[in-house]
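fyi for ur records
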Amino acid sequence: VLGVMGLLQPHDPTIQFAIRISKLILTCLSFVLAVMCMIVVRKTKSLTNDYANLLLFLIVYSTLFEIFSQLIYDPQFIMPVFCIYRDAPFINIPFNAAWGFIIWMTLVALNAPLYAISFLHRHQIIVPENSLLKLNRLLHSALLIVIAVPCLSYGYAYYVS
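which gave:
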């Protein structure tokens, strides 16, 4: 790791400025596309209300994750050590790179319960009413919590290990 760190040199200020502007443009473009996707989901008549809300939540969550990654955390990826420096965040909330990494990994891990509950919802629509695999809404919520609780610890556990 020390050898890799020794190879790092600061970029020319014009290159740093170009990278910052491109991050801002791509994040704004991603936000605009997310809004367009949300409009399409809302206008689609063939989706159930619950599934449309799940899709909207996935879009909002992924957009907020990107905003956190690009504008607030702005990690400097140096292999093999991830995110040991913050580059130049647009929104400079004072926290160190370690806590930013823990939050970032936790946000990545929380994608799993969102996709799992979306899959479960679609699966429950095609299951016959009298099937043993038909689950009630309380069990859906319990399953979401069972999946989400360990995901909240992944960032810290990964950082500590």
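The chain has a mean pLDDT of 83. thats all i got for now
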